[in-house]
Each structure stands twice: as C-alpha cells, then as structure tokens.
Amino acid sequence: MPFKAQQNKDFIIIDNRIKLTDDYFEKNKLKFKKITGSRFASVLNQNKYTSPAKIWAIMTNLYYEEMDETLSKVGNIIEPKIKKYVEDKTNIKYKQYNPFEIKWDLFQTDKIFGGIPDGEPLDKNGNVNYSNDLPMLEIKTTSIDSFVYRTVNGTLRMQKDSNDIPLVKQKNQKKESWYINNEIVIPDEYKLQLSLYLYLRNITKGLFAIAFLEKEDYAFPEKFDVSKRTIELVKLDLDKDNFKQIIDYGINWYNNHIKEGLSPELSQQDILWLKENNINI
User: Can you list the domains of the chain with their CATH numbers?
Assistant: First the structure.
C-alpha cells in the first residue's frame, strides 16, 4: 500500500487537514524530507498531479509514491548520453553526481531545501566552476507520443504491448504540447526546479536539455541514438531578487506544515485520493 502509516495511530483528519500524532511526529521528525527541485512545484500548488497536501504526506513519510520502473530505467540509461551530447555541443564538461555518494542531496547544509542538479560545469582541472557564466545543466526526457497509463495500487503505470513497447494514446501529442508557434516553452514546474538549484548555488545561468523519445526508446533505451532524436537546448536566466519571494514562500510552507506536522488544507482532489487509499474522511 502507498500509505505507510496508519490512520488514528500515526495521523488523524481534523478541520480538513491531516495532522500527525505527537508520537509519530517525535519518532519520525528527523527523517522528514526537504523541498527538492522536483517537489517545489507541488509545494507551490503548480503540479497538476501532486497537490501540496499530497507532497506533504510524501515528505513526512506517511505516503510513498513509486516511480514507474520504465521511466526510472530510461532516465538512468539515456540521460548520460544526453549529457555527452550537450558537452559536445557546448564544449563544456559537466559533473554528474552519484546520488548514493552524496546521500541524495548536494545541499546538505541547507535545512529546508535540497536535491541534485543534473550537471555542474567543470574547469580543465575537473573542478566545479561557474566562472564566465557557465550554466548549470538540467536534463529532461519526454515522449513524442502520449502513452496509455493505468493506475495500479495508486500509482500510474505505463501500459505496453507484448514487445514491451508503450501503447500510444495519441501520436505526437506530447511533443506538440511543448511548443507554441513553433517555439519550445519550458513548463513552469521544470523552471522552478532548475531555478531552485541555481538559487542554492548563488548563480543565475541555467541550461535545459530536452530530449524527445520515440516509443521504442522506452523498450530499448540502450539503443538510444542522440543523432536520430530531437534534443532542444534552452537557456534559463534567474532573477534572484524575484525568486527570493518564492523561496520565502517555501520556507514559510515548510515551517508551517512540515515542522508543525500539519498538512495544507485538503482539496477535493485530495479527498478523492485519500478515499482511494481507504482513508476515512
């Protein structure tokens, strides 16, 4: 079950919020998760799949949402190839981190924000160096087509044919959604992710590498050929003064909800999600 905790033992529902019990809070507060780049949009209620209350439940370890195994495998195999493509195109070498070695967090000294950038620029001696406005790298892989998904145990799972190739719901729909007037537009949730890491590094230049994958790439990621796929490079410039307001919101949200053991208000979407997980409202 995605819910790892028990209602009325570890948490209760009160005044349209989830509240941790004192016993659960004291035993688990040191294990609560930080706001990472991938969680920031949910905290700000800008993720259509994960609400502020749901990300709170994930961060307080009440709820565990598994990542689709196919997407995880594809990312691990294809992203290094995209990094190499970017290095060849930009003549910048990038450092990628082993998450196990850095305990899944490059920003250990920050008590609220954390995460791992996809690539940091290196100088000729192999040291991370942001001089001359070299950009931080963020890699995103997305399908060209819209695929068929089905909810299994509360988690969306990609549906495939007998050859392990994803079933296509709508051809070219996913790629088309990235463009307006033939110009690629980066979704706000991705801009928030890279902007957070830029802010934590006290730099302003970022670079997205967006790779559009064919359905066969999900079945055979080891055969992925960058020369036969569309890869868009998009720059991001961070306005640190304006972003500070968003950072302040994140800090207040963390202090009011994670440190207090009390979720944001539940939306109708949240109530449906809880009922699907046999939580009594």
Answer: 11-65+247-276 (no CATH), 69-244 (3.90.320)
